[in-house]
Amino acid sequence: MxxxxxxxxxxxxxxxxxxxxxxxxxxxxxxxxxxxxxxxxVPQESVDAFRKAWGLxxxxxxxxxxxxxxxxxxxxxxxxxxxASAMQLVIDRIPATLQLTIPALxxxxxxxxxxxxxxxxxxxxxxxxxxxxxxxxxxTIPSFVMGLLxxxxxxxxxxxxxxxxxxxxxxxILPTLTxxxxxxxxxARFSRxxxxxxxxxxxxxTASAKGMAWQDVVWRHALPNAAVPIVTIVGxxxxxxxxxxxVVESIFSWPGIGRLLVVSVTNRDLAVVQCIxxxxxxxxxxxxxxxxxxxxxxxxxxxxxxxx
Amino acid sequence: xxxxxxxxxxxxxxxxxxxxVLHGIDLTVRRGEAIGLVGESGCGKSVTWLAALGxxxxxxxxxxxxxxxxxxxxxxxxxxxxxxxxxxxxxxxQDPSSSLNPVLKIGRQITEALVLHRALTGxxxxxxxxRLMDMVGxxxxxxxxxxxxxxxxxxxxxxxMIAMALAGEPDLLVADEPTTAxxxxxxxxxxxxxxxxxxxxxxxxxxxxxxxxxxSQVCERACVMYAGRIVEQGTIEALFDNPRHPxxxxxxxxxxxxxxxxxxxxPIPGTVPHPRDLPEGCxxxxxxxxxxxxxxxxxxxxxxxxxGRLLSCFHPVGNAVDLAPAAESRxxxxxx
Lengths: 308, 336
Known about the structure:
heterodimer; A: mainly alpha; MetI-like fold; 2 domains; 77% helix; flat; B: alpha/beta; Rossmann fold; four-stranded antiparallel β-sheet; 12 helices; globular
């Protein structure tokens, strides 16, 4: 178990390091912050002074080493735009994003999984066909289309809900819905196929042959087995709690991490973008780790593999 | 008075998506007796009992009658079947490792049956489960109560399946190819266990197998099935000493012998027909060396012979009281 944990930890560190490095290189190769920050018509001296002040005149590898060193000492850089701690800027935006993504995750789980399981248990029924159709509809429509569609219906046509901003709780409804619909579809489909597969297994027949009531067979024997693939998807969704709102926040002018990311990329605000990517990578890695631990808890066969 | 007949199948038919795979099975299981069901893969021997217990998937259409102690269980409410399963009729399956739930502790899987059928809970259920594990030959049961199925060997998994089946103290144990997935030495142990348990508990046994040797060890009676029908049924002695149906005879000819001269085995030519396109007349006729004209146009009924066996063949082989009609029609075929 200790070996398993240390391997996982090492892999997590390598993953985060790879993301950070990739972001560092790509950001610096894709545009000059000095040009973007200062505008097109500034004298060369100002540009040079800006570059010198932010260390951009150094060779790339020296910048990189300095950056890695500062990360390990807990310094995540300063925003070129706001001249404030980049990490603090990012952390300030996290609650707004979670206000959307946590309710959306909740909706995905409480609607998607039961719908998929119900469809699997009533295969070929009208409900099953309805669930499949709705699920395909849900996850094939991109969120920017879905968002605009919802705005068109609920804000413009019906006038029921605001189309942007963060002033009241009603402002959160449309972005949350937009974000959850695709996930509901994905979870419904995955739960359905996982459940169909499990219900065809010999041990389900054994449980029935034992004389168990049908609902007990489903609850005690089938669902715990179907949980493994479902947990994988939910784990991925948990990992996207911070990253998953980029498009939707932009559509609905929601002041979260996603919008900060878009703005910071446009401005080439290097430190902020790197902070956001670091946090996104870290949440992904942590949720993957949790999923792996859950696997072991859900399926004793995997526990045995991990121990060796 | 309780009838001697425990389970009666009458005209049991099964169709998958409209294709009939079982064409009317009549079988009576008396209290305490052991009956073998033999035949090639796909002949319907497993389907018969899965259908009787309502364990087939939803796309299967089951018709006919299944009575347990005279009470009809087919087509009734789900609770009737659930009351029979495990309690009156228990079933164990071919692949013991995948027949146990991989994510539940073995102790819990056994106690579940005790909670259901014997109203035992807590310590009492655990004590009884340990006794059952001990009874089926799981060494060190107390320590292994909390292990998962993958921590047991295939043979032990089958023993655990048997322990689970015994938990409801059933009147009939249906063993569906219980030794097929196991090593030869383990097969023998499981067969011995089944024989022993039957002697101890007095429960009836249905032993489904394609292994005639195993059937002869466990059972007094056997039904030979072909393409969804019983073609011959009789005592083990009658079938072994004097198989009358050419298919039964074919099964015996295909078994290697340890004693006697080293002859070539005689395989049955051809393969089992697909249920979708069964031949007209006797389903075995295309593979039968004794088939005559009438075999290809009419289907022989399963009828009682003088020696008490049931046989479905116009031109049986072996020692019959009267061979003349068979010979006659073979001559008819030869000249036509």
